# Entry
Amino acid sequence: MSNNSKTIQIFLPDGDPKGIKIATIRTRNIEVISFSRNNLETLYKVMEDKSKVGVYFLIGFNENKGQNEVYVGEAEDIIVRLKQHNSNEDKDFWQKGYFVITNDGFFTKSHIKYLENFLYNKIKEADKILLHNGNEPTKSHIDTATEADLNGDIYECIEVLVSLLIGDNIFEKIDKKSNKKTGDVFICKDTKGNYAEGKYLEDGFLEFKGAKASLSECASFKKASGYSERRELIENKILRKENDYYILEKDYLFNSPSAAAGMILGFRPNGWLCWKNKEGKTLDEIYRDNPSKK
# Structure
């Protein structure tokens, strides 16, 4: 068994698996509470007997940019701050929230100010989700021992619990070298010069910056799941027109190999067959035909 093994307890205070969740690691004092904007009244009751000092994340979809975004904050009374955000038009984007508190009253103002800055920068560096914050939060000054605790065990606990509840690790930068399989860089190209490289990761298919994509699109592609994502990339200038092709402005994670290939080719492909490594083996051959060799 891995030394990183953990036992995580998730409590449903109202018994609804789609409702409020309180996640803890048995041996730690950190609690993360997830909730939706439509169940705030229940949340307020749940929080009555809990510490309200902590950091929090508000997540929602930015319709103008076509991407999810997150606001990172801290408060000595998170419920008071949440009520302010709920009535503030500037924070109207969010639909899901996550509180990080302690079950023993450990957090002080200095702790949470430090964590707010630290977690903000982790998310910024990872670049997997937009940040709603206008400016970088102010970092508090703490002693070396406390900083080591916050950067170490406490951050590790926050990362695990928040990632579990969100369903994605928004603090972790995608590492192109993280996949150790031989020949794990795959290429997708056509006869017109459209070309991309990428990797198949646990979270999806990562297409590398600099990919060249077709300007044209087949009529049938409009019915494919990847069509709307391609249109959003173009509208947000992540896929930018240059001469007779589009160019991908940054590494981009697609939820499937087919969506990644469709963005390049402009039609509805089978990504498992389109992506090939330098030996000419398809993604299907490497990852699905020979599971024992993974």
Remarks:
- Helices lie at 40-46, 78-86, 109-126, 144-166, 226-235, 257-265, 271-274, 283-289.
- Residues 2 and 8 are 15 Å apart (CA to CA).
